[in-house]
Amino acid sequence: MTNRRNFLTGAGVTMLGASLVSRAGAATLPDTPSASSAATAAPLAPPNGRPYNPVVTLNGWTLPWRMKDGVKEFHLVAEPVVREFAPGMQANLWGYNGQSPGPTIEVVEGDRVRIFVTNKLPEHTSVHWHGQLLPCGMDGVTGLTQPGIPPGKTFVYEFVARHAGTFMYHPHADEMQQMAMGMMGFWVTHPKNPRQHAVDRDYVFLLSSYDIEPGSYTPRTNTMLDFNLWAMNSRVFPGIDPMVAGLNEKVRIRFGNLTMTNHPIHLHGHRFEVAGTDGGWVPPSRRWPEVTTDVAVGQMRAIEFVADNPGDWAFHCHKSHHTMNAMGHDVPNLIGVDHRGVARKINSLVPGYMVMGDKGGSMGDMRMRLPENTLPMMDGKGPFGNMEMGGMFTVLKVREGLKRGDYRDPGWYRHPAGTVAHEWTGDVPAAPSAPQAAGAPKDASLHVRKPRNHKH
Ligand SMILES: [Cu+2]
């Protein structure tokens, strides 16, 4: 009985906070800045409050705040948004302040933070501040620490950002639906001393996954594992901006995983260390070198390295299906099947049918007609041709002479003469004939699968 009464009282306090807000009038609420594009915004130099080295949100932005009586006040609006995944494909998602993911929140260790959350969704929501050490009633778990924020209402969260590190926020209300619709955002608490953990460039993004049928616009939110879009900050390659760094600059890349599976994140041309997690910083003596680090569901990683190798370096999830876009999953393997002449006949029966490589899966240079609002499975024009990538893939561009604070794409790397793999033009021995697998059928039958094309 006591427990129940306390629980209701606790809930009442939160409700009182919300009603006080509306009674005092909208004038007391901070502005609700909104982003209209998926471009990477310039780092937000702290306009007031204590100094820090701002992060760069890949294809995202940082939420401005106002200082009120020494408290940093933010205003998040949970609302339906249209997010461009890459040029040529948009999706109806749910997010915050105009985009999915929501804007990054940056504060300094010891800051008192007040966050107003207005719910413009058709159902209740809440915000959980993943990794923060805060009073239990501010933890944002619907039903457990607060009632859900009803549609049209504004709730207030207030706590002190007690420790520096890498965090995220997301709903703890109808999670399967709301996170599959793109509701999430990054949170960085900077150290009090800006020289502590200082790096030259600090990139952040969240990993998310979506199941959007080719030709449709809205994710299927009850999908548990078979997603067809693997995203960094709700963007897929070639829609993800490159990360750039000056030669010998110290770089940090922080990422969190809000998908339903783990992602081994791999960087070419460099060795890095995991310098921090959502649990805090790893002491330097306990770090070890890696070129791939796995980030499990609900985890965050901050990796650090010196960008001492000039070039255009792939940075991607090492699960090869996660560097592809939609449509790749219902296709039979036809390697070794001679289907010359068959494709045209099938095409007259199944419009849009595409024969998948008899010499491998490469379809980077095929240009079939796609359903509307769908991206090629493997794409991205590079200086040497099609990169045959999608999903969780981007490029780290390390350049000599890049100015501090310059985040513009420097274009493709100009390789020094004699440093690019090239065709051998000397003598080639006669090729032996290919071995035939025992019991291989002479004419393997073709399985035809049409791309599913439902509209929602
Ligand atoms: Cu992955």
Automatic annotation (TrEMBL):
<feature type="domain" description="Plastocyanin-like">
    <location>
        <begin position="85"/>
        <end position="193"/>
    </location>
</feature>
<dbReference type="InterPro" id="IPR008972">
    <property type="entry name" value="Cupredoxin"/>
</dbReference>
<feature type="domain" description="Plastocyanin-like">
    <location>
        <begin position="219"/>
        <end position="331"/>
    </location>
</feature>
<dbReference type="Pfam" id="PF07732">
    <property type="entry name" value="Cu-oxidase_3"/>
</dbReference>
<dbReference type="InterPro" id="IPR006311">
    <property type="entry name" value="TAT_signal"/>
</dbReference>
<keyword id="KW-0732">Signal</keyword>
<dbReference type="InterPro" id="IPR002355">
    <property type="entry name" value="Cu_oxidase_Cu_BS"/>
</dbReference>
<dbReference type="InterPro" id="IPR011707">
    <property type="entry name" value="Cu-oxidase-like_N"/>
</dbReference>
<dbReference type="InterPro" id="IPR011706">
    <property type="entry name" value="Cu-oxidase_C"/>
</dbReference>
<keyword id="KW-0560">Oxidoreductase</keyword>
<protein>
    <submittedName>
        <fullName>Multicopper oxidase family protein</fullName>
    </submittedName>
</protein>
<feature type="compositionally biased region" description="Basic residues">
    <location>
        <begin position="447"/>
        <end position="456"/>
    </location>
</feature>
<feature type="compositionally biased region" description="Low complexity">
    <location>
        <begin position="429"/>
        <end position="441"/>
    </location>
</feature>
<dbReference type="InterPro" id="IPR045087">
    <property type="entry name" value="Cu-oxidase_fam"/>
</dbReference>
<feature type="region of interest" description="Disordered">
    <location>
        <begin position="29"/>
        <end position="49"/>
    </location>
</feature>
<feature type="compositionally biased region" description="Low complexity">
    <location>
        <begin position="29"/>
        <end position="43"/>
    </location>
</feature>
<keyword id="KW-0479">Metal-binding</keyword>
<feature type="signal peptide">
    <location>
        <begin position="1"/>
        <end position="26"/>
    </location>
</feature>
<dbReference type="Pfam" id="PF07731">
    <property type="entry name" value="Cu-oxidase_2"/>
</dbReference>
<feature type="region of interest" description="Disordered">
    <location>
        <begin position="424"/>
        <end position="456"/>
    </location>
</feature>
<keyword id="KW-0186">Copper</keyword>
